[in-house]
Amino acid sequence: MMSISGPAPTEAVTPDPPPLAGRRVLRQRWTDLAYFHWPYEPADVQRLLPEGVSVDTFDGAAWVGVIPFVMCDVRVGPTPPVPWLGTFIEINVRTYVVDRRGRRAVWFFSLDVPRSAIVAVARTAFALPYCWAHATHRVDGRRHRYTMQRRWPDRGPSADLAFTVADHIEPSEVGELDHFLSARWGLLTTRRGRVLHGAVHHERWPLHYVSDVSIDQDIVEAAGLPTPDGAPRALCSPGVGVEVSWLRRVGDGTGAAR
């Protein structure tokens, strides 16, 4: 008798990570991170995603985020951090997706960094849309300001993002939406038409409220999305230590990406 199976059920949102699947390939710290998110019509986001990747929604809305932070002490495998190249600013534009196996993940539209060598390696080895940009991070007490101006592959898109760190949020007070936006234990990308998944592992996010948010940007529009509407949902975090596994083809539990 032929059996017919439907789509895999979508995994639950969990604020604490599952065990890391696959071989660890990267270790790093993400510090001084902020989340700026806006709701979108799911169709506006889905049209930018490849076959086999579905936009994830919360209460019927897709969410798009601009995430500035400092990447610190990047290590490949067991090697020590690479001087200069191992610490840099990143500002990414992302949304939230589900693969054919029901795994929730992050989808990146762009990742801007001020290290051209990092761009070359990340695009080649991890098939991620890294961009080369001039970027700064200035700190004045609890006030943070990130700026970037893209240089390659397209000139023009920029961002000026400022916020003040406010009170710590007790873990029991973090709402379902904020777990949905922050607790993501994988990323998806594509290479030669194949969807790839990389597992991500870190401790539960320590989250803070933010105040005095100021945003001037067009990197969301550069991704092909409508202009964000209204003030973002905003949080920040002092950071976490992160491990990332090697990419694997979705639907292939054993084969590494090629």
Summarize the structure.
The chain has 258 residues and is mainly beta.
Task: Write a structural description.
With 258 residues, the chain is mostly beta strands. The chain has one domain: Acetoacetate decarboxylase-like (Beta Barrel). The protein is 10% helix and 49% strand. Strands 1-3-4-5-9-10-12 form a seven-stranded mixed β-barrel. The N and C termini lie far apart (36 Å).
CATH architecture: Beta Barrel
- Quaternary structure of the protein: single chain
Task: Indicate the radius of gyration in whole angstroms.
Answer: 18 Å
Spell the H/E element sequence. Answer: EHEEEEHEEEHEEEHEE
Helix content: 10-25%
Judging from the principal axes of the Cα atoms, what is the shape? globular
| CATH C-level class | Mainly Beta
Question: What class would the helix/strand composition place it in?
Answer: mainly beta
Keywords:
seven-stranded mixed β-barrel; mainly beta; 258 residues; Acetoacetate decarboxylase-like
Secondary-structure map:
Elements: E1 24-40, H1 42-46, E2 54-55, E3 62-76, E4 88-98, E5 104-113, H2 116-125, E6 130-140, E7 143-152, E8 158-168, H3 176-182, E9 186-191, E10 194-202, E11 208-217, H4 219-222, E12 233-245, E13 248-249
Parallel strand pairs: 5-6, 5-9
Antiparallel strand pairs: 1-3, 1-12, 2-4, 3-4, 4-5, 6-7, 7-8, 8-11, 9-10, 10-12, 10-13
